[in-house]
């Protein structure tokens, strides 16, 4: 952990600063919780959105775009849902000088806008399953401390998918598909995650149950980066979304929804960061390779000439490459691009030039690799793949080290205090889960999924037979 | 014009219907002026956005994303601007159960959100020119009749570009660049246009002058599809956007902004339509080619087999192609895809099969072309290019026919009544322009740009020497 002190020990300050200096966002917009995406940040965002869209399209999800404004009467139909959201909804009450007849909510999420339309679109079993998604801005009136990309009043990049099914079984199958999609997505981002079923007291408003993906910030707090909800028939009953079965009878559809926001980008920045700044996985980096000539007396012209040739060759190979010919010292250029997370730097100095080679420097490890000039176009894409693989492996290794299996509440408190995530044996009883939250400075993420149940272990609260792992951490 | 009656004579009804049946938009969302983009329409929209972004990126514009919400104090700083917009701004007044301290406007356009940030970003001449753009949703509280894609309360697809310059000359150069970009954009869409300088009484609120692109609907009304504004120093003075000159003195920047909305997509639908439905230029069509097998007794299997092979081949060639194997009559399939504007249909029936060929049918002309099986992959992209060229030529021809050069106000009224656009000689005097608007059932679009000034002609109102062409039409 040497050399990682600021990133780990003063993470919040590090994050706010890097977001601004690496030109991800302008954080000085004069409304709390609203920020401006800068060109470099927006390119990163667009690559992330593309990857997610590709995974959704490939699995038969079709993109739509619903209005932002939801009339109050529609919004308030599902009682649980409105109870969960009413404290944080922005209301439009006036148009021009007129008071509106019906107040309009800025969507905090789109169930209540979409499902009345589902009731028009879905008539028979032939219309099912229906699988749609959109990427939109949504709004939450946050009263807590806001933070760029993490806690926002305008979430600018909310990918929400919504599906409808003929049977509960098909909805369950869809939940599994959604989890698979999200796994693939975060794997591409090289972001490690733990998957839990959220406890009953932390389920999405209106859902039967919720599953969440969490990753870990350097300060030991978990960040929820994706959620998958089984809505059962809760919404279809209220919005009257029915289909005619083959036998002529009618049934309400079974629904799921699942979402990912720009927190995925926050995770990308935080997980792969260090004291210098960002390190971006090559697939998502707005600039994958930067070429820095190191001019020296009378070899300046030929060095710059060779750099330009390399630039053209890499560009032709389809890479996002930048040639930095600014009138700055090489060291300043290195620092400039390192902060911005460019995964590979190519240096060309007089010694390189004399030896007909370049020096490639990996952002993730700092490793310096000599590459003969005539092999650059072939070697650079290989190096980028190697960087991706090793970034993913390292992120998972560090993540796993910090998931601690623990046998008592005291130890749990200790582990959380030391910036770890604790997993403890649990009887499955809500009461015991709530008691844990009271006794430690952390929150229950939920019951760990896709791992083996504890064997011959007792619940850390009631000491009855444990049948689940409960995951507990400080959270964002 | 035979066979085009409904499209021309009942255009409004035709448009509303085709938007719904061709699955561009769901028009039944229960708030006036808000609609839902359906998957097919959204694909069309995304192709249009891509083309526009490409043109902007190529000319050095960088994409950003600003917040939707603008605090009232910031919004109301520029007096002219707010006078132009205050009647149509939506206001957020509450968050959860709290009344907000400062009301928040839903952006009707983003000058007042962006330029306070410009004042932070721009310090010296080295920061200029600044050229940014974003594609966002904007809001207008429309009290008039709303219409999908044309008159909306949520404009979902507003591309707004904003630039800042060191000198008035450089801002003028930018205006010319913007016009060039928009010409290229509409040329790609095969949409004809007339370019005018809007009259003083119809200039964008806060601008020095405004230039607009208008196209023509089948019902003879013009549709504004793009605008370019020279803002001078009007906003930079108010928002204090200054730069330090080489000599150390300070000056306010010169600004321009220019926008295009989903009206470009409305134009695409209306200009190239006919009584059947849409006809989309191949570059933008969500589906460029549809393959329809015409099964016949015992040749059904081999026909479908050949169709599948063609489908694979065209897909590999990078085309957006669909193979329609639904259990419907071929005629129903033709109609289905024709309404949706698929530019080319490939039929394969028993005679085609016996002759080792397909029959390609052009959506724009109805022309039937036999193509030998082994030449399909080469001939289809050619045909698509031919379709594009001839759609563009035909649209311009019909457009030009309906721009009438006219010498008197009575004739002008007559021309407008007959669904034409009139251009009349004009002295350039505001009073005469306003009088024309009073005397005919149309609006002044403005002074025609990029054409020769009238020679030896007199103004249709005051009969003084005319030095400009004034363009007058019924408008959307």
Describe the structure.
Two copies of one chain form a homodimer. Chain A is α+β, with helices and mostly antiparallel strands and 476 residues long. Chain A folds into three domains: 267 residues, Bira Bifunctional Protein, Domain 2 (BirA Bifunctional Protein, domain 2, 2-Layer Sandwich), CATH 3.30.930; 98 residues, Anticodon-binding domain (Rossmann fold, 3-Layer(aba) Sandwich); 73 residues, Translation Initiation Factor IF3. In chain A, 36% of the residues lie in helices and 28% in strands. Chain A has 15 helices and 25 strands. In chain A, the strands form six sheets. Chain A has a five-stranded mixed barrel with strand order 9-10-11-25-24. In chain A, strands 17-16-19-20-21 form a five-stranded mixed sheet, with helices on both faces. In chain A, a hairpin with a 2-residue loop joins strand 5 and strand 6. Chain A starts with a helix and ends with a strand. At the A-B interface, strand 2, helix 3, strand 3, strand 5 and strand 6 of A face strand 2, helix 3, strand 3, strand 5 and strand 6 of B. Strand 5 of chain A pairs antiparallel with strand 5 of chain B, so a sheet runs across the interface.
What is the fold's blueprint, element by element?
2 copies of one chain form a homodimer.
Chain A: H1 5-9, H2 11-21, E1 25-26, E2 36-37, H3 39-58, E3 62-63, E4 69-71, H4 72-75, H5 79-85, E5 90-95, E6 98-106, H6 111-121, E7 130-139, E8 154-165, H7 168-188, E9 194-197, E10 209-216, E11 221-232, H8 234-238, E12 242-244, E13 250-252, E14 254-260, H9 263-271, E15 278-279, E16 289-293, H10 300-316, E17 321-323, H11 330-339, E18 340-341, E19 344-348, H12 350-354, E20 357-362, E21 368-372, H13 376-401, E22 403-405, H14 409-417, E23 421-426, H15 430-439, E24 443-448, E25 468-475
Parallel strand pairs in A: 3-7, 11-25, 15-18, 16-17, 16-19, 22-23
Antiparallel strand pairs in A: 1-2, 4-6, 5-6, 7-8, 8-14, 9-10, 9-24, 10-11, 11-14, 12-13, 19-20, 20-21, 23-25, 24-25
């Amino acid at each position: 952990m040497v050399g990682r002190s600021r990133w780990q020990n003063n993470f919040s300050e590090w994050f706010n600063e890097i977001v601004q200096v690496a030109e991800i966002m302008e954080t000085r917009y004069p409304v709390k919780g609203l920020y401006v995406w800068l060109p470099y940040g927006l390119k990163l965002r667009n690559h992330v959105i593309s990857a997610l869209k590709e995974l959704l399209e490939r699995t038969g999800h079709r993109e739509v775009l619903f209005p932002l404004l939801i009339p109050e009467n529609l919004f308030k139909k599902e009682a649980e849902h409105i109870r969960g959201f009413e404290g944080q909804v922005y209301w439009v009450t006036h148009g021009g000088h007129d008071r509106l007849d019906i107040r309009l909510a800025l969507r905090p999420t789109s169930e209540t806008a979409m499902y009345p339309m589902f009731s028009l679109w879905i008539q028979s079993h032939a219309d099912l399953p229906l699988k749609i998604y959109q990427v939109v801005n949504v709004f939450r009136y946050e009263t807590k401390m806001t933070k760029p990309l993490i806690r926002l009043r305008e979430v600018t990049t909310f990918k929400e998918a919504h599906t409808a099914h003929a049977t509960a079984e098909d909805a369950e199958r869809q939940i599994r598909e959604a989890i698979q999609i999200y796994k693939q997505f975060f794997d591409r981002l090289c972001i490690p995650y733990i998957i839990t079923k959220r406890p009953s007291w932390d389920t999405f408003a209106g859902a039967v149950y919720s599953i969440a993906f969490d990753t870990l910030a350097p300060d030991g707090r978990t960040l929820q980066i994706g959620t998958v909800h089984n809505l059962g028939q809760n919404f279809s009953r209220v919005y009257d979304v029915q289909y005619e079965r083959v036998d002529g009878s009618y049934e309400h559809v079974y629904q799921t929804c699942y979402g990912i926001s720009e927190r995925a980008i926050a995770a990308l920045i935080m997980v792969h960061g260090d004291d210098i700044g960002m390190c971006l996985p090559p697939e998502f980096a707005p600039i994958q390779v930067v070429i820095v000539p190191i001019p020296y007396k009378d070899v300046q012209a030929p060095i710059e000439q060779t750099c330009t040739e390399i630039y053209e060759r890499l560009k032709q190979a389809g890479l996002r490459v930048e040639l930095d010919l600014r009138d700055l010292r090489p060291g300043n250029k290195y620092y400039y691009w390192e902060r911005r997370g460019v995964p590979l730097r190519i240096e060309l100095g007089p010694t390189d030039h004399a030896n007909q080679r370049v020096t490639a420097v990996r952002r993730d490890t700092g490793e310096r690799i000599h590459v003969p000039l005539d092999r650059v176009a072939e070697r650079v894409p290989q190096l980028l793949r190697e960087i991706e693989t090793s970034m993913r492996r390292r992120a998972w290794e560090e993540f796993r080290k910090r998931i601690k299996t623990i046998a008592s509440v005291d130890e749990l408190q200790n582990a959380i205090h030391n910036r770890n995530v604790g997993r403890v044996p649990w009887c499955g009883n809500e009461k015991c889960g709530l008691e844990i939250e009271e006794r430690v400075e952390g929150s229950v993420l939920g019951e760990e999924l896709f791992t083996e149940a504890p064997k011959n272990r007792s619940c850390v609260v009631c000491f009855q037979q444990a049948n689940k792992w409960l995951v507990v951490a400080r959270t964002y």
